[in-house]
Amino acid sequence: MLRSVKGVICQGPKLDSGYFLHASARAWLSAAVNQDAQIPAEKPRAVFRTNESNPANHAEQHEGQHYSIPLQEVKVVFPHGLPYRFQMQMKTFNESCLMVRKPALELLGYLKSTNLAHPAIRYVIYGEKGTGKTMTLCHAIHYCAKQDWLVLHIPDAHVWVKNCRELMQSSYNKERFDQPLEASTWLKNFKTSNDHFLKEIKTQQTYMWSKRESTEKGRPLGEVVEQGLTRVKNASDAVGVVLKELKQQCPLGAFRLLVAVDGINALWGQTTLRKKDKSAVSPEELTLVHNLRKMVVNDWNGGAIVTTLSQTGSLFKPRSAYLPHELLGKEGFDTLDPFIPIRVSNYSQREFESCYQYYLDRKWLQHDRARTEEGRKELLFLSNSNPWQLERISAYL
Amino acid sequence: MAAPTAGRLAALGRRLAAPARAWLPGLTQVRWSRYDPSYLEPEVNKELYRKPLEELSEEEKMQQELKALQPIKATPSNVTSSVFSDPTISKFTNMMMKGGNKVLARSIVTQTLETIKRKQIEKYHQASEEERESIECNPYIIFHQALKNCQPIIGLCNIQKGGKTYQVPSPLKDNRKRFLAMKWLITECREHKHHRTFMHEKLSQELLQAFNNEGPVIKRKHDMHKMAEANRAYAHYRWW
Fold first, then answer.
1. pTM for the complete prediction?
2. How far is A369 from chain B (nearest CA, A)?
3. Which of A174, A225, A367, B89 matches a 20 to 30 Å C-alpha distance to A34?
């Protein structure tokens, strides 16, 4: 079954026509790039770096090399979504460098040959802890942002099912619960990355927020987002409206939609939230989760759904669990089935060497023994080529 | 590590020739070990084992033969053959430890080193070309230099004479100096800083200040020196 789905993607035609949002939208990316001071051309090109900063041109020859994203672009494309330690690294090194790896190249290949007439294909990136699933997702998001897709990025679905300070009963549906704080933070970040799209997409029906406030049919979607930001009580419903509108309008062909969810196993797991009578809240009783679940079903076309499984933020799952069956559970697996699994594993020899050279170049490995062959072998042994572990060890060396 | 081991082994060798007595009448052992005196100390340094036979001196060859025959003590769990292991850092971690929670102490120390490195590298990237050479980014060098700057040269000890206790200036052993430097650093961070800041943040600030010869720990060292200078008159009370 999976093989036939893969066959469908490979035969699909390349994307070309009919996207009028191109010209106006691409201007913002190039403007953002021009503002940032580029690396001077005289700097010698090291083996672990590549000058190719457009993910569309990344090919197998770039495997294992780091490409840098200008910091202005990072602020626009990734207002949320980069891992915390990567953000600290960006601040320290004053640059943002991503490694081009095989799973990401595979995923980019599939995205390049998506057939927009067919239902959206779901990709699930899975792997052991710390192998680079979130960074692969970010690579795909950067590619789609450069190619002018509308990126719907949920940075960590686990945040929506735990540690909620204000859980209020939803005004739209008495059974469900709203999370105003999480919804408004998400809307703010969504606005930063997709501002130009929000001005052009129009609502297709009237929405009544309260007796006096409403959004008419035909108003730009940006107004719905503003409504959610100003009236925080309606933020979760605003998110639901945005998702519904995007799902309805994407098949019409005006824009291509990428739904990127990190930690999708949160939608079908358990929550740590409790109702007033101390009984547990199940995920479908949360408005945000309910609406996101509808988004991840493949009954729309004109884009793709890329998700990541994550044990790190998950609730009530053992640390050794990383396979889709273990993390998604029966319900989640049945909803996501059929999907294309993309396995991300530890660094290969070449990738490890590249990462090691990058840290040496950025003066991150300061211990004088770290530069020796002995030190390198010890780093390889201690980290077991696991990217997360290597980063944590080289932090204090 | 090799030189003191050689000295100790030579002394052991001499003692082994004579009958080994762990007990003498009139002498009580303060620190004693369950090991028989014939047990040798373990050697963790990989470099020494890799030396080819020709480079070994006579003494080292004798040691190797001894190791083949004599029993060797078990290595304690805090000793590693890692190239990154540092005895000063281990000592500092042990002094930070509370209630045997070595995991927490070690994590604090590694986070401190990371924080120092981040601060210095950020400064490095934002500085101009001339200033870059003067900025030290290696957290280990900063740590060792800061500790060295905090070590007092002369200390005070209490001597009772004629019913009164006098603070008499006296020389300090190396171990005592290192201990005092580390103790002052840790106490300063624990007691005189805001309790809601993280320990690694407080420690990194203190270490960077001590590296530049400023800050409260350096002040405490100077206070100790001034007291010793003030009590110079009583220096002759010391008889050792």
1. 0.83
2. 7
3. A225
